[in-house]
Design a protein that fits this description.
This protein is of the alpha+beta class and 361 residues long. It contains 9 helices and 9 strands. The strands form 2 sheets. The chain has a 7-stranded mixed barrel with strand order 1-2-6-9-8-7-5. The longest helix is centred in the last third of the chain and has 50 residues. It is extended and about 65 Å long.
Length: 361
């Protein structure tokens, strides 16, 4: 079990809860040692006396505060404790606030708080109270030689103390060029917002911290293993020349990027956006028949078989064929009437010809 780094008590009102503090986070970064590139020997650092140049052991090192240049006040751990015993041995809750009122930028370092000897019941009382009211406790605590503002948060069955940054430790954003809600250069259209929301919804899932891990660290360790296997432990890899990258433009087609993120091709997405409700795709357009073929379409030859179309398309096509049949029948009747009139024309001309000649005589 890890060794506690601090022992004291949580205090609010007249309630006194003995607790022990343990680190809640561990650094899993790459532990790289600095080497001399000439012989790859490790490089060490010495604690030395700046006046004599001689090395100093840990037992001979004390802490001091420089009150003027070159002059120090020596302070031991006991001096620091006696300066304010209550501050160094207690977590004083000064207020309870809603958790959502504390921006995440204020949170700094988490620590576990475990009940001390005889503190199980009062520890559980504070834990259940925080859980029921849905609030966090804001407290002052001194860790080592610095006083911290802290938040006591109920996480499962554990009370977690998370140190907070003071307001003057948060850098102002006045010098940053951040677009405002009414900025013309950052106006967001409803279409872009809806597509972004769809992307967020598509990527939403339950919080599963076990599925996240440091892939970069794993890749570097794999590279180290590969170098060891290839006996390249003393090989210095030189950087490759950088390739010239194409010039970037400041014009960003945000819709295309969102469409690509949603897994759509821009052309297809544009077609989907132009439709009414994004229903079934329309049937393929039929090739128009030549005018001559339409006029001579009076035989009984069956039409060529067409590809199967959706039900609503077939109904539409049937209506077209019915209209075409009616048009053909009308044209046939017109032709028949024209032929009959042509045959009757010579007889009529023969009867009227003598009368015209007599009149002329």
């Amino acid at each position: 079990m890890a060794r506690s780094m601090w022992k004291g008590a949580i205090s609010f009102g007249l309630v006194h809860i003995p607790v022990e503090m343990y680190p809640a986070a561990s650094d899993q970064g790459l532990d790289l040692t600095m080497l001399d590139r000439r012989d790859f020997a490790p490089i060490g650092f010495k604690r030395y006396n700046k006046a004599t140049g001689k090395e100093v052991s840990w037992d001979d090192i004390v802490k001091g505060y420089e009150y003027k240049e070159g002059e120090y006040v020596v302070l031991t751990d006991e001096d620091l404790r006696r300066a304010n015993p209550e501050a160094t041995q207690s977590i004083d809750i000064i207020a309870f606030v809603n958790a959502e009122q504390v921006p995440l930028i204020y949170y700094e370092q988490p620590y576990y708080l475990a009940p001390g000897k005889g503190g199980d019941k009062v520890y559980a009382l504070l834990r259940e109270t925080l859980r029921e009211v849905g609030k966090i406790g804001i407290a002052n605590v001194v860790i080592r030689v610095k006083q911290h503002l802290a938040a006591l948060v109920c996480v499962g069955d554990t009370i977690v103390l998370n140190t907070l940054r003071y307001p003057d430790e948060i850098r102002p954003i006045d010098e940053l060029k951040i677009p405002g809600a009414d900025s013309k250069a950052a106006q967001v259209t409803d279409k872009e917002l809806q597509m972004a929301k769809a992307l967020v919804e598509g990527m939403s899932e339950k919080w599963k911290p076990q599925q996240y891990h440091d892939t970069y660290r794993e890749d570097v360790l794999a590279l180290i293993k590969k170098k060891v296997a290839a006996n390249q432990t003393k090989t210095l890899t030189e950087p490759e020349p950088e390739e010239e990258k194409p010039a970037k433009t400041n014009v960003i087609d945000l819709v295309s990027l969102l469409q690509a993120s949603l897994g759509k091709k821009p052309a297809r997405a544009a077609a989907d956006d132009d439709g009414d409700d994004g229903d079934d795709e329309p049937p393929p357009a039929r090739a128009k028949k030549p005018a001559r073929a339409a006029a001579d379409d009076t035989d009984d030859t069956p039409p060529p078989r067409a590809r199967k179309a959706p039900a609503h398309a077939a109904t539409h096509a049937g209506a077209k064929r019915t209209t075409a049949a009616k048009s053909t029948s009308a044209k046939t009747a017109t032709k028949t009437a024209a032929k009959t009139a042509a045959r009757a024309a010579p007889k009529t001309a023969a009867k009227t010809a003598p009368a015209r000649r007599r009149k002329a005589a």
